[in-house]
From TrEMBL:
Keywords: Transferase. One of its GO terms (molecular function) is glutathione transferase activity. One of its GO terms (cellular component) is cytoplasm. It comes from Halomonas korlensis. It comes from the Bacteria. The record marks 253, 296 as: Lowers pKa of active site Cys. Residues 145-296 form the GST C-terminal domain. The keyword Transferase applies. Gene3D superfamilies: 1.20.1050.10, Glutaredoxin. The active site is at residues 63, 194. This is Putative glutathione S-transferase. Glutathione binds at residues 96, 129-132, 147-148. Transmembrane segments: none annotated.
Length: 315
């Protein structure tokens, strides 16, 4: 991580935990918004007008948070106006690295070797972890935003006057319900699996494990009435947020994070739902299982041997 702009070599997956050994996630540090006219958004400062070719997205296929943004870029047809660079899925002592793995890119935009170089370019005194996703502004050479939830919202509407494509993933009529379900899915699943995997006490692990499977059971039953998506026929950002955790479940969370009551594949309604979203145009290309496996199983604190499991054969 970075301390006052200086990279600290000893990377630890758990930087903060509470007195019961529960993993605590850090807040994102860049929170500006791209808007149609460059006016300030809900947080941060203005000056980031939606313009074709001006912004660039740094992601890792391993990362569920980054993958949300990649999916929304795809669903909203922004591929031609927002470029993408993919980091190596194996975290190094220097954090995320460019190149060196099939399907990982060099950073042809800034020439950086590691992602943290972008953070210090954006703010020479920055402290915190150098996480993906990063939404980069080529015009001013800075980070617009590194919070996937914000980037998803921006991609949903900021560029609509340039590219009017794809569903509205945050329709106003559903906003309150979306916010509530997002929060529940974040707590129990998106972050819940990490709390199980990175727990440093039996109690913290069991608490998280119980919440993960209680939420999966609840969603399995919600989807069992034959609805296409969580809110019916309309695909929303909540589906994207759930999908990124479900797609990683059997290949990473079931084994590495000890979320092993059952596989996702054995939950029929959720499994069908997962494949329904995977079949949406362009979405399969946003999922690279080899990156997901290699990345998670390279977390030394959880898997010192570095051995990557051969299975499962199918998701
Ligand atoms: N709040 C961030 C979290 C992103 C995040 O935690 N990314 C992880 C990868 S899945 C990361 O880059 N970790 C590197 C590190 O913590 O040093 C978001 O949702 O955008």
């Amino acid at each position: 991580m970075l301390m006052n702009g200086v990279w600290q070599e000893k990377w630890q997956p758990v930087q903060a935990k509470d007195e019961q050994g529960r993993f605590i996630r850090q807040d994102s540090s860049f929170r500006h918004w791209i808007t149609p006219d460059g006016a300030p958004g809900p947080t941060g400062s203005g000056g980031f007008k939606a313009e074709p070719g001006r912004y660039h997205l740094y992601i890792g296929y391993i990362c569920p948070w980054a993958s949300r943004t990649l999916m929304v870029r795809q669903l909203k047809g922004l591929q031609d106006i927002i470029g993408v660079t993919v980091v190596n899925p194996r975290l190094t002592d220097q954090g995320w690295q460019f190149g060196g793995f099939p399907g990982a890119d060099e950073d042809s935009l800034t020439g950086a070797r590691y992602l943290h170089e972008l953070y210090t370019r954006a703010d020479p005194q920055v402290s915190g972890r150098a996480t993906v996703p990063v939404l980069w502004d080529k015009q001013t050479g800075t980070i617009v935003n590194n919070e996937s939830a914000d980037i998803v919202r921006m991609f949903n509407d900021a560029f609509s006057y340039l590219v009017d494509q794809g569903p509205d993933l945050y329709p106003q009529v559903l906003a309150t319900e979306i916010d509530a379900l997002n929060q529940a899915i974040y707590t129990d699943l998106n972050n819940g699996v990490y709390q199980a995997g990175f727990a440093s006490s039996q109690q913290a692990y069991e608490e998280a494990y119980t919440r993960v499977f209680a939420k999966l059971d609840e969603l399995e039953s919600r989807l069992s009435d034959g609805r296409r998506y969580l809110f019916g026929e309309t695909l929303t950002e909540t589906d994207i947020r759930l999908f990124v955790t479900l797609i990683r479940f059997d290949v990473a969370y079931h084994g590495l994070f000890k979320c092993n009551r059952n596989t996702l594949r054995s939950m029929t309604a959720l499994h069908d739902y997962l494949h329904r979203i995977l079949a949406l145009e362009g979405i399969a290309n946003t999922v690279q299982l080899d990156h997901i496996k290699a990345g998670y199983y390279s977390i030394e604190a959880l898997n010192p041997s570095g051995i990557v499991p051969a299975g499962p054969d199918a998701i």
